[in-house]
Structures are given as C-alpha cells and as structure tokens.
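Justification of computing resources. Each target in the renewal requires a structure prediction run like the one illustrated here; the chain below, 148 residues long, is used simply to show the kind of job we budget for.
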Amino acid sequence: MFLCALLTLPVIGFVHELITFGYGWGFLTGERDRYLLNGYLTIPSMIAFQLFGGVLDGIVLAIVTLVFYRTPVCRWMLGIGFVCLYGLGGNSTATNYQIEFGATWRFPEAFMELMFHPVLTPALCLAGGGAFLWLTRRVWQIDWRAKP
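Resulting structure tokens:
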C-alpha cells in the first residue's frame, strides 16, 4: 500500500498544486514573485514537496492496511484515509503559500481559501482515490509466495 500511495497521492497533489498555484494564482506564469518563504518556486521543488508528503501519507495508509487487512471495511477505510490525507496534504501545500497573501489562517482555512475549487478538487480526489484503490486491488491479487 505504501507504493500505491506513493504513486497516486504525490501525483494528484502535484497536479492540483500546479494548476492552482502555478497557473491559477500565477506563481509560474510571472504574475507573482516566485521566491517564497521556503525557497524559490520551481516545478522540481513542487515535485519534491509532494513526494515528501507522499512518503508520509504512504506510511499512514500502509498502517491502515495492516490494521484492516482482509476485513470487509478495508476498502472503505483506505478510501476514507485517502480522502483525509488528500485534504491534509492540500492544507499543508496551501499553508506554504499563505504568507504571499498576507494571511495567517488556521488549519483548514488556507486550503479552503487558496486551493479548493468546487470542480477541480473533487474531480482530482475521485481520480486519485480511484487510481489508488485500483492499484491496491492489483497488488492484493499478486501471489507473493515463492514458487518452488
């Protein structure tokens, strides 16, 4: 599950960050200054941030899988965990940009004000969650036992 989360959460988070901040708010188009509090904003720096978050999210989803493995609620718990971690990742991403807007928002406010879009956010969450659950189903079907 760690690998499945690492293949889906950072990709969806990067696409969301690229569309929202890179082009929507103008950080990569030159409308805003690309130097943020945590460094100069480039596409590789965006990818690195999302990969770091993806590793942490992958560990959490792997633990969820170990706890609920082969139970009837495992898929539901993984789906709920994916959505929650997607929201937490989006909030931590939006928090990096909030200083540029002169705001000191609390926990979900930065995500809701800067990153949430009524169509894009649910669409990316459904696409990422679907891809994640599809990958987990494929991984569970592999027979990992050594063949004599």
